[in-house]
Amino acid sequence: MPGPAGANKAVMNGDGGHDHIEEAESKQEGGAGDADPGDEANEQEVIVIQDTGFTVKIQAPGTEPFDLQVSPQEMVQEIHQVLMDREDTCHRTCFSLQLDGNVLDSFAELKSIEGLQEGSLLKVVEEPYTVREARIHVRHVRDLLKSLDPSDAYNGVDCNSLSFLSVFTDGDLGESGKRKKKGSELEQIDCTPPEHILPGSKDRPLVPLQPTNKDWKPLQCLKVLTMSGWNPPPGNRKMHGDLMYLYIVTMEERHVSITASTRGFYLNQSTTYTFSPKPANPSFLTHSLVELLSQISPAFKKNFTALQKKRVQRHPFERIATPFQVYSWTAPQIDHAMDCVRAEDAYTSRLGYEEHIPGQTRDWNEELQTTRELARKNLPERLLRERAIFKVHSDFAAAATRGAMAVIDGNVMAINPGEETRMQMFIWNNIFFSLGFDVKDHYRELGGDAAAHAAPTNDLNGVRAYGAVDVEGLYTLGTVVVDYRGNRVTAQSIIPGILEREQEQSVIYGSIDFGKTVVSHPKYLELLDKTSRPLKVQHHAVLSEKNESVDLCSSVECKGIIGNDGRHYILDLLRTFPPDLNFLPVEDEELPPECQKLGFPCQHRHRLACLRQELIEAFVEHRYLLFMKMAAIQLMQQKANKENKATALTNSASAEMTASSTAAPKDPEASKATQTNSEPTQTVSEATQTPASQPGTTTEITTSREVVLNACKAVGSISNTSFDIRFNPDIYSPGVRFPEDCAEDIQKQKQLLKDGAAFLVSCQIPSLRIGISELITRCAKHIFKTYLQGVELSALSAAVSHFLNCFLSSFPDAVAHLPADELVSRRKNRKRRNRVPGAGDNTAWASLTPTELWKNVVSEAQSYYNFTLQCDNVDLVVEKYGLQKITLLREISIKTGIQILIKEYNFDSRHKTAFTEEDILNIFPVVKHVNPKASDAFHFFQSGQAKVQQGFLKEGCELINEALNLFNNVYGAMHVEICACLRLLARLNYIMGDHPEALSNQQKAVLMSERVLGIEHPNTIQEYIHLALYCFANGQLSTALKLLYRARYLMLMVCGEDHPEMALLDSNIGLVLHGVMEYDLSLRFLENALAINSKYHGPRSLKVALSHHLVARVYESKAEFRSALQHEKEGYTIYKNQVGESHEKTKESSEYLKHLTQQAVALQRTMNEIYKNGSSASIMPLKFTAPSMASVLEQLNIINGIIFIPLSQKDLENLKAEVQRRQMLQEPGKIEENQEDCLLELDDKLPVDD
């Protein structure tokens, strides 16, 4: 890296927005006061943890000793995992590690092992098998055989997911791929994009979404590996050490039976129909199944070796399991191979390697709560605690998903089997499952089934919020909400003792009947009080049935139950956040005019619509700015009055009026607040006019108190001395009554809720664009949910394909096809069938028509979203709103869990339907769960971002690296937040000139984004664009183009060409093509970018000026100077009008115009010479050179928001001082200085969902 003096330093241009990670409330109330001793202490702790790795030697049987880098914090078990992954030791699972003849405990940390130090030799010693170990070994061998097979990723099992980056890079990244002779190789690059990627193409093929990966071609090692029918061994064979039997067919068609014994694996004499367990001759006893198979099958030996070579060559991020399952909405037709492990898993409740003993289930509630109780005083403790919490949560989400699917598929017995199916409840694997229907009219007042369907997600949001505040001693239930086959299932961990008693006896806080009977409890009030400030929930009183006042610090529905384990649990958190009055008409209550003007309030189908936590945060921040502004206005009025008094007391009144009129805020809320508070303001000014009003006197202190009091009242603060906004979640809850002495408070709270509703429609929503395709697919999802509830399992694929035909196919007469024999059997078995939750008439789905479906979509848009769609079929919608059928298909499939066959579909045929039932491959669950956060890592990440934005790149880089270490510590290697960390690191590496390191980090970011978010997720597309930039900078031009073409294909698939982000992508492609002298192609992309920028940013935008300049550069390279001049003039005019003639950009454009004019004149002279003198003309050779890579890279940096500025040390100091000055100005309390400029816009505060 260059030295500091005179070096190139960089300013990053607004990348913070992209790297924002949805942050849970990080202030840990209660136990966390001592948990954050300050950044410096934290940094030292991290260094202690991270910096003391050492190397040990490993000696395995039959291999040379090798070195392994380990860290003192690792457990011995982690070395086991490394050995099971290495190419030369991967076939071993049942071994111990020994140091000087002593066996190491698998769960011991390396630092606790006596005598283990740098250079120690650890021996791998084979151990006797048990049934459990033999099962683990067979499972591991099967995993190795399937390690390149993508079928688990397509089938959405075992946290496998897809990644296609390697198809486009050909392992071309890093130093090895650097182009040696850039100039001579340019011609060899094939730059032509596929036809469907070109601007203007209407073709949207589906097949390229999952390109063929040559590594996935099957390297078959065995024909069959399965459990033998002779299992389990009879008693006499157990006494000889037999554990289980395997049946194997080799590639050479040899059928063999193998015994797994305590000593290892050997061939026995059994056949398919005769049991003869004695060892065959020769028996080939080996400790590893792989060694045995290598001895009996040459094809196995050859292919297994090749397979493992390929496996270890893959990037680790392509094969590490993700923390939560990611499903693919498309898949090719995969052959269904025999698989003993999969077959066994289907009929056991396996959830991790610890569960091979049948009947052993985990106590989820105990695990979830115990991890919360772990110590958190210092960083190592907090890391351990957060890692444990995260691991248990991801295991619980997987178990809950599997259980929910089993419930809906009818594979779990209900605990109340006599009840109607929709009212049934289930327990499986220590998890409680309930269905999203209104049982016993519980939600009748709130909207029946619609409310029962909305309540679980509201409850989950509450669990997420309370979990994030993380108060010691307050417990929530593990909660997962699963939508599967049209049913919503809530999975919860079970409070100890809850099933043995009635709910009425258990609840000691809150209400079980929506506020009729209400109870409270001092311990709950004490615990919930700690959550009150971070969650903005107001402490309030309600009236019980007996008209007694009861104190609460949550909504009445929130129930407190002390479990048999003595823990204080809260559940039913569906009203944690206040209601959205725009969707809650209340008698005799009027909404603010901003809402009424837009037609609110609307009658919604349920009464549980509530404000999101992000909105509450934004509203409170908005009010805080308002509070500061009002206090500043009043202080200025006082100041003005004081000055006037010094000149002449008589003029004071008029001076005051002037002061108030000049300082009147532009914000409608603020002006409303100042009007309502004219009297107190008057009092302030009168007080300042008294003779005693000398600086520092009591009166002045009193007046400043009054200023705060007035500002508090104006913004609705619950305190009179400081800014503190909290909401009463029970306002407007049906059936809840409040004591009369709280009437004034309740009135204030009602006003606050109305203001919140107005803030949502007047400040937040205008900064969002309505996504028509999102709206349509959500409506279709609502209809699909009820449609599927009436479908029995055997007709599922026919029903799904029929729905998709009605939704997307142009064929007007879509008819459902039911095989005749199924129709017959259905009539016979009508009585037995109706056991699927919510099932009605099993064939009603078949009568749906496209016309009826679209009529329902239109009415759903009107009733649910208050949006008028004026279309009665898919083709009209596509035409009117410029949508794409492929995008609608992707959206509906992802939202409902449908997986379809990847092939080209003809949606537009008017003669036949697009889908058949063979095209529907699967239906997956859609899962919502809590994402526990790595709080320390997140603080480091934020500090790093802040440092970078202040220009301290090196310090920022160090902090981000520490954040990465901590994220890995908590989440493991794969997580969406690690992805954001890697992206920022790559950007910093790039800015600081380390291109190979930038490539390496960004490659990881792309792979991780594909794996944890999905191959065509918008974030993944962004990651591809960043990687292309770094490839270009590293001289890998053809790879850069391939990556950009992939990004453009994905973007066309996800949102089509008409999208503001497409302009940036096309500018990138156009620039790279310009660099490789493909001028005509380059122009197609750059002119498209220009058109899109003009459409979305207006023809006078600076983005448009830059687009004109890029187009002009290509025309110059083509020697078409007239066009080049025309475009550059457009750009120059925009710069001149927007930033003035003296601005650097305007001057650059002016210079470039002169240069183009000279070029044009020179060309004209030459042409004239040729016309005049014909072939004898003596002409100067014209130099049309290709643009230099440096100039192309400079433009690429500009459009991607990276600006390099050469700075001297002095400039750098000035820059930092300026940054600090601006930060000071932005701090609360400094607002008086730049009051007029303080427009209260919060556009940039919107959380980005990463």
Automatic annotation (TrEMBL):
Transmembrane segments: none annotated. Belongs to the CLU family. This is Clustered mitochondria protein homolog. It is found in: Cytoplasm; Cytoplasmic granule. It comes from Denticeps clupeoides. Residues 672-700 have a biased composition (Polar residues). PANTHER family: CLUSTERED MITOCHONDRIA PROTEIN HOMOLOG (PTHR12601:SF10), EUKARYOTIC TRANSLATION INITIATION FACTOR 3 SUBUNIT EIF-3 (PTHR12601). Residues 16-28 have a biased composition (Basic and acidic residues). Residues 1-39, 173-205, 651-700 are annotated as: Disordered. Keywords: Cytoplasm, RNA-binding.
